[in-house]
Write a structure and sequence with these properties.
single chain, 239 residues, mainly alpha, two-stranded antiparallel sheet, 10 helices
């Protein structure tokens, strides 16, 4: 299969660290918009057209998940210890579930699970593909089981998020074709635009080096949603 490139290599200027930074900023914008912004605030109005601040922030937040999935695949391809990588995702998913539940309804129970469960299931799917590479039936059954778990677990993005990760991995050399995986997720336009920074990736790690900075970036997810919970608890309330 021919590798597809639509952006010259000289424009590949974004390291993995810069992609993480873009994804984190997008994620925070999305979550602040979702939980803290009044839906009635109009940012722009022209004639009969209105642009609510809430809608703009949610749309900008669509960049985060595709970039995180892309970085997950890069991590899978380059990690020296796949078990430790998977264990880190599992631990973060469990840790994040408490602030995630609190953020959504102010209690320690919420029927949906946080996005790190989606990333973990996707990662396990990639491991199954690699482990059973010469046994397509086992690959199919493994992915089917993980898809069923994803559906019933009801993690963020659900089974569509799991399928997105698997297809993004399968099409990792097809830069044009992989853009169409965005149809699996909500808001195709903005999800597809997330592939622009992804296409500028230069394959380098960037400024996030060492265990401290790596895990600090991991902790941004549970910490920022816990802060959002505290703001809702003290100033906004839960519906």
């Amino acid at each position: 299969m021919i590798r597809q490139d639509f952006i010259p290599d000289r424009f590949s200027v974004l390291s993995g660290s810069m992609l993480k930074l873009i994804a984190v900023i997008s994620m925070i914008i999305d979550h602040v918009g979702c939980h803290l912004v009044d839906h009635n605030i109009i940012l722009l109005q022209a004639g009969g057209y209105k642009l609510p601040l809430y809608r703009l922030m949610r749309d900008l937040g669509r960049f985060a998940f595709p970039i995180f999935c892309f970085l997950l695949i890069e991590g899978f391809l380059h990690t020296r210890n796949k078990i430790r990588y998977g264990a880190s995702l599992a631990i973060l998913a469990v840790i994040s579930e408490i602030p995630y539940d609190l953020e959504h309804n102010g209690t320690l129970y919420y029927p949906e699970q946080n996005v790190f469960f989606t990333l973990l299931l996707g990662y396990l799917g990639l491991c199954a593909i690699e482990r059973f590479r010469e046994k397509p039936l086992r690959v199919f059954l493994s992915l089917l089981c993980l898809a069923v778990v994803s559906y019933f677990l009801d993690a963020d993005y659900s089974i569509q998020g799991f399928a997105f990760i698997i297809l993004l991995y399968a099409l990792r050399e097809q830069k044009i074709l992989r853009v169409f995986t965005a149809v699996l997720l909500n808001n195709f336009r903005f999800v597809a635009l997330a592939f622009l920074p992804i296409s500028l990736y230069n394959g380098k790690r960037g400024f996030i080096r060492g265990a401290f900075l790596k895990y600090l970036f991991y902790l941004i997810y549970p910490v920022h949603i816990f802060i959002i919970y505290l703001i809702k608890l003290n100033y906004i309330g839960f519906e």
